[in-house]
Design goal:
Order of helices and strands: HHHHH
Number of strands: 0
Helix content: 55-70%
Strand content: under 5%
Structural class: mainly alpha
């Protein structure tokens, strides 16, 4: 039977994404803009660097490979709608 994350873990996830809104890297900002315009491949590019960490976290919690894969995929797909709340800003000062 799959385990569920506690309310505090879910709250931490929301806080992490809320705090990240104003600190999106330029390359990620471009990907987010592409995702918001409907480019599915951009979403895959955006999450690819985090896939392993998400999977390893779910594996550590669930201790079951199939459940961990399902939970990791669910975690990533649930956060797609959160991107709609991102305000993508770019630093106009040279780098």
């Amino acid at each position: 039977m799959p385990q569920t994350l506690s309310v505090s873990a879910a709250q931490t996830s929301r806080e992490m994404f809320a705090g990240a809104k104003s600190q999106v890297e330029s390359a990620e900002a471009v990907l987010i803009e592409r995702v918001l315009s409907g480019q599915e491949e951009a979403f895959r590019e955006l999450v690819r660097p985090y896939e392993h960490a998400v999977y390893m976290t779910t594996q550590a919690i669930l201790k079951n490979e199939a459940d961990a894969e399902d939970a990791a995929q669910d975690a990533v797909s649930r956060h797609l709608p959160i991107l709609a709340g991102f305000v993508v800003t770019r630093n106009s000062a040279p780098g």
